[in-house]
Q: What sequence folds into this?
């Protein structure tokens, strides 16, 4: 099957391993990702802080280009891009005047009919039911699924999962054998764009997230957002300095977790690019899998 | 139009606009004498055929006024009047009747000043539009056949 | 033949200085049908009225027009004059020559002409006036009070003390409502049950009050003064006459682990139970859903031990029909539970409780005998965080209104906690402190100044558990939105007050309006707060909107006074300017075709169905029927009737069309 794909800037840059893992699992499940032609930056945090029309026009252009490409549904792995695209779509739907102004600015036809899904919805819709057959290894660890803020807020616009205590990523990890813990910082802010301008704020906020996960026994943090990953992983040194700790809990993307479970190589999934080393022991399923398959056969 | 004195009928509800017009009186605010009020318990009582009757009998303009939405003394009469008006206005327009000559408003018992303004504005508008002869022409045949018909 | 008398008033100089009243009287005299037309200085004065009365007698007038001030002023005065003269009072109309004419126009011929037109219009109208008489509606002097909380209790006592019979029905096994669950009440810190239970006993012992507990309203028919109400008395599995209230059955019941509703889930009860020791009536009921006998067919220990053989496992629900004159709705309120808050854990943390649960902890007769203890491990909390406005004033949660009582009871909770746990620390996150009642602000100041409650202005974004403590994450906005984190042993949420469960159903049974929150709608928000638009049904207490005890009691007495006023006459006298469906001889019977659109537009539920039957009782036609006891005379049905089968006295089709025609033409 085919689906539209908007990588966004970070997947081409600092989050290239996220890109690698998304493409890898898409291939593994025979899903063709069709990148939107001539896509532009979604505007991220910068645009909506500076100019409202700009912040809506940039995503609107992307959606208009997707329409032009004949794409009805697009997957947007970066949580910020997802939030900006979905917000723009929502606001243009609610306000006819705004829609006209933006359409004039981008000089493209815009109907607002493209479906936008994030990577977790993508997994749930197209991968989850095929997962069991392809499972080769399972996780043995307790994991903390960290959603961050952009996937769930504002709830009125995104209507994705339970905004105070989302569960979809947890469900996926459970299917991969992990013990997904109940913890308090699932949607707390990591410090976001202050990574550069106020690194200490990120150290404090991300530090609290890691502290809670570790306290509750998590051995890995699973994320679906490049910003979250960057703050929790790349900024680990600053976090450890600020918190006066030496935590070494690894942070991986949900797509990487799936990739590992279906037997893809660490290299293909970009695991080696992480700052905090990822040493997650997994149990090879092969024998058990055959037994289960046989059991199923005899029952049939 | 020299010395054109429009004849304007106002259908108003007892609890709000009639009382509001009373307040205009007690406040001694002056307005044009071309509007004469007919009292109803509620704008919901106003059958819009009455409006046509008014035009048929020579009215140049009509005012219908009642309580503000949510303030109706009988809870919902004015909502019905409003709905009726929205449908009726489209029909009148379609029939070629000049809907600019009918002014629909909400005037509360406290809005003495507003009533005076509504009256004066309506009168000056009707003066600009001139005497309403067209209706008589449209209804001529009917009027010839049915004189002094009080009902229906 | 019409014989109309016209009286034009000068009103001193109020009318005559602008309108040529003599001229108007003279011109009006020329209209066919007018036999007497005069002007006079002051029509409303005694001599003025005498003028009318004598003219009626002398000239045998059949109708009277008074051209004077607004009818809203003196219509009543002149109607009375007609009555004195022996003419039906509804044969009088007033032309508004003052407020609508002389006071708002300049002195001119145009103004005099307008005055003439207005009088002429009414002369022609009054030719079509009919003699009308006040409508009499009989009244059954028995009241029904639905709901046995403090409001229902107050209303019942007031009505019963005025000498009327009252049926008080309550769906719980005991009366008392939420007030009986409170520990102390603000601003006096009186023990709640101590002040309430004497009233409850008074209800039980009052000769004019019949108390039905464990009962609900099944059906309501009829209208003001003449309601027929069917009550369902749910089976208690008990012969109340035989039961002495000894309580042996309760002590012997082996099924002890049922969550106690009265204790808000903090304690347990048995299957045969009395909700609390001071219950009225102090007779148990069997919870059929949990009782071992009803669910599994075994046990029956209560039956065996009962010394008076009062247990009746075969008892069925009983339906009772009551003839009622007026109904008082006093069904109270509920509060949101802690599971309403995803940011506070979806109700999974045992030590996050709501205000009513705290009341039970603080209550001397509660599950902890008044000691403040954590529900999770029974330990005494050393730090409690109270959250005011939990859910209220929040459009995102669907509750934009203020729940009114929480600021006060939160201050009270903090005070009670400090009194009981001297080394405890109470923190209160608040948005505003609403303490508007008598001695209320002084009370909240006491909480701060004397009892050391720490008020933090800000909201709490999240509460989670760590190492056995509840981490409360909020902000202190008065310090510049500084984040505040408190490690609490317990959190009390002052959750939003909501309408009582089942309000919508009950409102629909009674045809009473309600708002989007299912609070019952008052007839007028300012001037009629204890009545509904449904004649004969009054409102008392929190079922109309969140209220504290003094307000509930006031509203209850207010509702009671409306009922007592209603009962002060054997008959209700109503204005006859109402609508009616036309009736004619067979085979037509009526031009009404039975579409009942009129029924759907009447705000007073005054329109019903009437079956026209032949001599054998076969229904020929079902037409609309307007109840003269309920119709308020708005005329909406008249305008909406497609066959013009409905007309209205005083503003009939004939009358209003005549007004339009005569106003515009020279008839």
A:
């Amino acid at each position: 099957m085919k689906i539209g794909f908007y990588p966004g800037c970070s997947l081409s840059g600092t989050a290239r391993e996220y890109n690698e893992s998304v493409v890898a699992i898409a291939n593994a499940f025979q899903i063709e990702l069709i990148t939107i032609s001539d896509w532009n930056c979604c505007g991220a945090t910068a645009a909506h802080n500076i100019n409202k029309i700009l912040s809506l026009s940039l995503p609107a252009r992307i959606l208009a280009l997707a329409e032009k490409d004949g794409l009805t549904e697009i997957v947007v792995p970066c949580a910020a891009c997802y939030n900006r695209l979905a917000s723009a779509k929502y606001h243009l739907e609610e306000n006819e005047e705004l829609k006209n102004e933006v359409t004039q600015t981008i000089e493209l036809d815009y109907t607002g009919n493209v479906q936008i899904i994030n990577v977790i919805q993508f997994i749930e819709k197209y991968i989850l039911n095929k997962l069991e057959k392809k499972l080769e290894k399972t996780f043995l660890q307790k994991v903390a699924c960290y959603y961050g803020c952009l996937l769930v807020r504002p709830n009125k616009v995104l209507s994705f999962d339970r905004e105070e205590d989302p569960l979809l990523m947890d469900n996926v990890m459970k299917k991969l054998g992990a013990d997904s813990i109940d913890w308090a910082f699932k949607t707390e802010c990591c410090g976001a764009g202050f990574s550069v301008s106020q690194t200490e704020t990120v150290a404090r906020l991300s530090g609290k997230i890691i502290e809670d996960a570790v306290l509750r026994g998590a051995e890995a943090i699973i994320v679906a957002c490049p910003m979250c990953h960057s703050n929790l992983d790349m900024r680990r040194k600053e976090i450890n300095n600020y918190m006066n700790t030496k935590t070494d809990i690894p942070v991986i993307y949900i797509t990487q977790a799936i990739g590992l479970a279906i037997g893809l190589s660490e290299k293909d999934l970009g695991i080696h690019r992480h700052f905090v080393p990822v040493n997650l022991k997994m149990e090879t399923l092969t024998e058990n899998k055959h037994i289960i398959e046989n059991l199923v056969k005899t029952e049939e | 139009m020299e010395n054109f004195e429009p004849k304007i009928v106002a259908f108003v509800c007892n609890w709000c606009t009639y009382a509001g017009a009373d307040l205009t009186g007690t406040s001694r605010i002056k307005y044009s004498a071309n509007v004469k009020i007919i009292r109803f318990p509620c704008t919901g009582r106003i059958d819009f055929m009455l409006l046509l009757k008014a035009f048929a009998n020579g009215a140049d303009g009509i005012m219908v006024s009642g309580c503000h939405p949510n303030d109706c003394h009988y809870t919902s009469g004015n909502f019905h009047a409003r709905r009726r008006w929205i449908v009726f206005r489209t029909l009148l327009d379609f029939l070629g009747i000049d809907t600019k000559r009918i002014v629909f408003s909400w005037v509360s018992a406290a809005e003495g000043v507003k009533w005076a303004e509504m009256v004066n504005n309506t009168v000056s508008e009707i003066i600009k539009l001139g005497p309403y002869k067209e209706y008589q022409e449209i209804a001529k045949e009917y009027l010839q056949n049915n004189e002094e018909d009080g009902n229906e | 033949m019409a014989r109309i008398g016209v009286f034009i008033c000068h009103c001193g100089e109020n009318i005559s200085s602008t309108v040529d009243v003599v001229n108007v009287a003279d011109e009006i005299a020329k209209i066919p049908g007018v036999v007497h037309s005069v002007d006079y200085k002051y029509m409303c004065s005694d001599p003025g009225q005498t003028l009318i009365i004598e003219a009626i007698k002398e000239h045998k007038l059949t109708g009277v027009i008074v051209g004077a001030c607004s009818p809203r002023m003196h219509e009543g005065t002149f109607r009375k004059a007609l009555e004195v003269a022996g003419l039906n009072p509804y044969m009088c109309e007033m032309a508004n020559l003052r407020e609508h004419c002389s006071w708002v126009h300049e002195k001119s011929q145009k103004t005099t002409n307008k005055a003439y037109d207005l009088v002429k219009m009414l002369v022609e109208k009054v030719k079509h006036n009919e003699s009308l008489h006040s409508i009499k509606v009989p009244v059954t002097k028995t009241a029904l009070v639905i709901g046995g909380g403090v409001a229902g209790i107050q209303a019942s006592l007031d009505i019963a003390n005025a000498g009327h019979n009252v049926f008080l029905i309550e769906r719980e096994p005991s009366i008392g409502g939420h007030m009986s669950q409170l520990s102390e009440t603000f601003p006096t810190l009186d023990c709640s049950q101590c002040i309430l239970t004497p009233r409850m006993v008074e209800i039980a012992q009052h000769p004019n009050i019949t108390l039905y507990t464990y009962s609900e309203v099944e059906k309501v028919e009829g209208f003001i003064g003449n309601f027929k109400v069917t009550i369902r008395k749910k089976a208690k599995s008990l012969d109340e006459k035989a039961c002495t209230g000894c309580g042996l059955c309760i002590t012997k019941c082996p099924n002890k682990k049922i969550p106690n509703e009265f204790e808000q889930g903090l304690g347990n009860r048995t299957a045969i139970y009395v909700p609390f020791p001071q219950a009225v009536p102090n007779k148990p009921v069997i919870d059929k859903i949990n009782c071992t006998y009803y669910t599994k067919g075994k046990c029956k220990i209560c039956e065996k031990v009962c010394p008076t053989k009062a247990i009746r496992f075969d008892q069925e629900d009983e339906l009772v029909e009551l003839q009622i004159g007026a109904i008082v709705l006093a069904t109270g309120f509920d509060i949101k539970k802690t599971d309403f808050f995803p940011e506070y854990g979806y109700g999974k943390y045992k030590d996050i409780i709501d205000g009513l649960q705290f009341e039970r902890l603080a209550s001397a007769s509660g599950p902890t005998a008044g000691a403040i203890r954590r529900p999770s491990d029974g330990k005494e909390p050393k730090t409690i965080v109270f959250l005011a406005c939990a859910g209220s004033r929040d459009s995102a949660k669907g509750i934009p209104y203020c729940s009114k009582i929480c600021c006060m009871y939160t201050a009270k909770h903090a005070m009670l906690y400090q009194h009981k746990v001297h080394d405890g620390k109470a923190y209160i996150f608040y948005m505003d402190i609403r303490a508007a009642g008598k001695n209320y602000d002084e009370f909240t100041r006491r909480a701060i100044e004397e009892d050391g409650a720490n008020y933090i202005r800000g909201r709490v974004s999240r509460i989670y558990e760590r190492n056995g403590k509840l981490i409360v994450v909020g902000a202190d906005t008065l310090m510049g939105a500084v984040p505040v984190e408190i490690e609490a042993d317990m959190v009390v949420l002052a959750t939003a007050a909501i309408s009582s469960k089942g309000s919508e159903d009950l409102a629909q049974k009674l045809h009473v309006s309600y708002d989007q929150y299912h609070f019952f709608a008052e007839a007028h928000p300012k001037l009629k707060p204890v009545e509904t638009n449904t004649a004969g049904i009054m409102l008392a207490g929190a079922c109309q909107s969140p209220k504290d005890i003094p307000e509930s009691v006031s509203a209850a007495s207010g509702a009671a006074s409306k009922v007592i006023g209603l009962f002060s006459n054997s008959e209700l006298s109503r204005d006859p300017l109402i609508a009616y469906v036309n009736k004619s001889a067979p085979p037509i019977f009526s031009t009404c075709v039975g579409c009942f659109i009129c029924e759907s537009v009447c705000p007073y539920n005054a329109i019903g169905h009437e079956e026209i039957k032949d001599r054998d009782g076969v229904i020929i036609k079902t037409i609309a029927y307007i109840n003269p006891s309920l119709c308020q005379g708005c005329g909406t049905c008249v305008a909406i009737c497609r066959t013009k089968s409905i007309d209205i006295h005083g503003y009939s089709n004939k009358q209003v069309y005549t007004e339009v025609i005569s106003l515009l033409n020279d008839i």
